[in-house]
């Protein structure tokens, strides 16, 4: 197999992974800059290699999870993107994520060829460390609550200083400059709200699961956020 074709097959796998649903052959052809006929031929090749790709010409294709290609292809720019992203995570989130991202880079480095491995130590980028506001929130515990779809009880002070206690269903974390935010469903208000982490005075992580699916709740919240008249920030 030629080098150019092997890279094209890897690129095709990446595009299929990025599209979580069925994607049309013409869309794949446009993204990769090749003909539809080439896409169809490459799909057959990947299927023969063991990739679980469902679909057919005229309908579209979807890659089922679980298939791994050999770790041959990171470009230099992809390596730089990983390093820059790792720096940002290490300096702007919490200690648990910082440790996790360094472990991930070490695992990637273990399978890279020597000429690309040097890129992991490249100093092309510098990401400054953000001064994190004081907060009682343990973001690692918040992430766990989101994964397990568990409720959180918080005492929260709004922008005017009014204090309230409420149960929320955490669905997303936000990082903007030095501020940390939690987006979630507020049982007190019966609506989605955004809470600034350093305005949270006390927090309890509950055993109660919240209903529904977190990803679906994120979609519903984003759909509401498209309406500019709706103010969601609780400060």
Automatic annotation (TrEMBL):
InterPro entries on file: CBASS_pafABC_assoc_protein, HTH_11, WH-like_DNA-bd_sf, WH_DNA-bd_sf, WYL_dom
One short Pfam name that applies is: WYL
All copies of the WYL domain together span 139-200
Query: What are the residue boundaries of the Helix-turn-helix type domain, all occurrences included?
Result: 8-62
The parts of the chain that form a coiled coil are none
Which PROSITE patterns does the record cross-reference, listed alphabetically?
A: WYL
Kindly give the PANTHER family that the UniProt entry links to this protein. Answer: PROTEIN PAFB (PTHR34580:SF3), PTHR34580
Q: What is the name attached to this protein's record?
A: YafY family protein
């Amino acid at each position: 197999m030629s080098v150019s074709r092997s890279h094209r097959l890897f690129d095709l796998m990446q595009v299929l992974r990025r599209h979580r649903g069925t994607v049309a052959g013409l869309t794949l052809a446009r993204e990769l800059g090749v003909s539809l006929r080439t896409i169809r031929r490459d799909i057959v090749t990947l299927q023969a290699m063991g990739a679980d790709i469902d679909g057919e010409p005229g309908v579209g294709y979807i890659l089922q999870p679980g298939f791994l290609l050999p770790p041959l292809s990171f470009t230099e720019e992809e390596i730089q993107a990983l390093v820059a992203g790792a720096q940002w995570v290490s300096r702007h989130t919490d200690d648990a994520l910082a440790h996790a991202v360094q472990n991930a880079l070490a695992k990637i480095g273990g399978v890279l060829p020597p000429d690309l491995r040097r890129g992991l130590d490249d100093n092309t980028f510098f990401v400054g460390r953000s001064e994190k506001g004081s907060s009682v929130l343990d973001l690692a515990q918040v992430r766990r609550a989101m994964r397990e779809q568990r409720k959180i009880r918080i005492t929260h002070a709004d922008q005017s200083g009014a204090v309230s206690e409420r149960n929320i269903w955490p669905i997303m974390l936000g990082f903007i400059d030095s501020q940390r935010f939690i987006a979630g469903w507020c049982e007190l208000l019966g609506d989605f709200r955004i809470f600034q982490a350093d305005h949270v005075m006390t927090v309890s992580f509950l055993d109660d699961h919240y209903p529904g699916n977190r990803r679906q709740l994120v979609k519903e919240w984003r759909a509401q956020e498209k309406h500019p008249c709706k103010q969601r920030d609780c400060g």
